Amino acid sequence: MTFTGSRGADGRYRASTHMSFDQFDQDQVLNLDYSDDNGRRFTGVTINDRANADIFDLVRARDSIMRMTDTVARHAALQRLVAPRDGIPLNVQRLSFGKDPAKTAAVVLSDLLGKPRLRLLVDSLGAARIEFLDAGGRVTNAITATGSGTSRRG
């Protein structure tokens, strides 16, 4: 759990709170977050999938890599360390829901690679829509609160 808050001499403020729950021998899989940058607020919950890689082994490997003096080799080794294992990323966000600074409430469901595939949205004026996305992030179909669907294939 972390939390911060400060106000500058100009009166502007920043605050945040983060609470996470870790997978066994791993890192965060459930997060509760709040951030406020002088009135621009985000509040949300995320659920992640993690590859079966022991975090202690990853930290040990990272620490060893960071001692490398050859910066090119160090960068390549770090890239290999965080690369997907058997096609599965080390960490992907699968579900998020919350409210963004524009006061849009959103639920986003993502595939196994972390690509958003479905968004449920209600904007600050109360307009609702459902968006279906392809693997490239393009909206392929949208349904508005009035029930009209708009296909965007092609």
In short:
This protein has two helices and ten strands, in the order E-E-E-E-H-H-E-E-E-E-E-E. The chain has 154 residues and is of the alpha+beta class. It has a domain of 53 residues.
Task: Report what the structure shows.
By secondary structure, the chain is of the alpha+beta class. The protein has a domain of 53 residues. The model has no long low-confidence stretch (mean pLDDT 92).
Order of helices and strands: EEEEHHEEEEEE
Q: How do the strands line up in the largest sheet?
A: 1-2-3-4-5-6-7-8-9-10
Principal-axis shape equals globular
Structural class: alpha+beta
The amount of beta strand, in percent, is: over 45%
**Helicity level, as a percent range?**
10-25%
Total strands: the figure is: 10
The helix tally amounts to 2
Main beta sheet, described? 10 strands, antiparallel
Radius of gyration: 20 Å
How confident is the prediction overall: mean pLDDT?
92
Give the end-to-end Cα distance, rounded to a whole number of Å. Answer: 45 Å
Flag low-confidence runs.
none
